[in-house]
Amino acid sequence: MTNRSAYDLTVDGEQHIAFVVDTGHETCRSVTNDAENVVADLVRLGIDVDRYRIICRDSGGTWDGIDTEDGRFAGFYALRATNRTEAAFMALTRRTRAQLAAGVRPK
Prior knowledge:
Elements: E1 2-5, E2 7-12, E3 17-22, E4 28-29, H1 35-44, E5 53-57, E6 63-69, E7 72-81, H2 84-92, H3 97-102
Parallel strand pairs: 1-4, 3-5
Antiparallel strand pairs: 2-3, 5-6, 6-7
């Protein structure tokens, strides 16, 4: 087993969402267990992770969110969505850590 996760990445620049799909859960670390490196990969690709919603699908097909702060992994948040469209909607209507700290309410 390798020490890095394997995943497919799709970026929706218009909606500011990064979709991460775990593809190597049987041969390497899961995206969940490698979230710090996944976020670092996105930063290296030029994605402003603090402005994007990052959502990931685990090996069981469930979508959940990854929180960031100052360009780094800051934790997970539950979406428990079963499809990508539902996950995107849920993530876009959720307040981020920065918004919560600033008292911003979702539209």
